[in-house]
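Course assignment 3, question 2. Fill in each field.
Student: A.L.
Task: Predict the tertiary structure for the chain below.
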Amino acid sequence: MITYLNFPVKGVRVEGARMYPESEVTETIPDNASLLTLNKKMLRDTVESNPWVQGAEVNENWNSGIVTVQVKEHRPMLYAEVDGREIILSSDGKELPGLGGAGLAKLELDRDQVGEILDFANTLHENGVGLDSIDWVGAGGIRATVAGRRVICSRDVNDSQAEALKNIMPQHPDARAFDLRSPDRVVVGAPVQGNTKSDPRG
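Answer field:
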């Protein structure tokens, strides 16, 4: 007698999701689905089509029959009114359907300012620096929260400044702010008012 193993899907686990609803995954996998015929690419593409999802990875456990979907979500970093329309953007420039619980203050910006913010966010992202939020934009530059710390910059932040910022921040755990408005320089705000250091790295 030949026994055919079906390897049924016995359960679904979604990890890393806060805004993405787990029910969307379970609805995508049909009843009596088999691990042998599970289309992981289609499932991943379906999950990534949700506006909150930045990326997803699908893994199956052949022993338990559990399918695990690991989700990386977009994080809101800008809440603004632009030309009379409210927008919420992630640090990679994606427009999101809501704040997702983020406590962002609404800013009034024009399109050029939004472009400058996205350039700044992209430069930080490409250099491995996490941008939490844009807090203020004005003639004095852009004030942001980066990895939980205050950063001030002008329109142009280059790769070397972003790299320097990433390296300098851990070396100054008590600094209140980091100023990138001087070309090729990161100015470190020390805990004592008026005491600052200018670091030429970058």
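Instructor remarks: Residues 190-202 have pLDDT under 50 and may be disordered. DSSP finds four helices and twelve strands in the chain.
Grade: pending
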